[in-house]
């Protein structure tokens, strides 16, 4: 039964994006995982970003490295919980990395946990927190990557995913989104102050996210400042 659930989950992931391609099997030494050092792969990832966007500078390369390391585990967790009401073991998840891109993942067991949202969110938060701390420590061995820096990135990513879930699931009311946001932040041991990043838009009366972190994509040649970038708020304050 679990193998069938996992196969369905892989299909759901590829519907999200073809880059989120899952497979069953053990990780290899070329893959990124929590089972050993990833410094070689992380350096390759970072240098690939340097080569692709030499004009963007260190903050972008570090932020983009972090986003690439964590995007698949987050999407997998959210897809499993909100589309399948189940959760695979994320602890041994391994990821493919090549040419400055992380895409495709591997799980080494078929068992999936079933439960209510609170239970699954708590379990996902525990597993992903350990995984992300492993990545952060490795980044910090080579580059400066402090807990406070990544905490803002993770909080923004969680809240953004919840708003995506709301668009796909009509039963996710605003109050339910806020409740689930509290559960997710607690599972990652992140302060509830980040709930203030969610606000009701006066234009369409829908929940929106005002980020506390900047992806720095505007520093690349083709990049622009995102609609919910904190830099826009800073500009408004200067003008006023």
The SS-based structural class is mainly alpha
Percent helix range: 40-55%
Strand order of the largest sheet: 1-4-3
Overall shape: it is: globular
Low-confidence stretches: 234-240
Strand content: 5-15%
Q: What integer value in Å does the Rg equal?
A: 18 Å
For the report, how would you describe the main beta sheet? 3 strands, mixed
What do the pLDDT scores average to? 92
The number of E-state strands comes to: 7
N-to-C CA distance: 60 Å
Order of helices and strands: HEHHEEEEHHHEEH
The number of helical elements comes to: 7
InterPro entries: FCR-like
Protein name: Siderophore ferric iron reductase
Q: What would your notes on this structure say?
A:
With 240 residues, this protein is mostly helical. The chain contains seven helices and seven strands; from the N terminus they run αβααββββαααββα. The chain has helices spanning 2-16, 39-52, 58-84, 117-142, 147-168, 174-187, 230-239, and strands spanning 22-24, 86-88, 94-98, 101-107, 112-114, 198-200, 207-209. A three-stranded mixed β-sheet has the order 1-4-3. Strands 2-5 form a two-stranded antiparallel ribbon. The longest helix is centred in the N-terminal third of the chain and has 27 residues, at 58-84. This is Siderophore ferric iron reductase. It comes from Shewanella eurypsychrophilus.
List keywords for this structure.
240 residues, mainly alpha, three-stranded mixed β-sheet, two-stranded antiparallel sheet, disordered C terminus, FCR-like, Siderophore ferric iron reductase
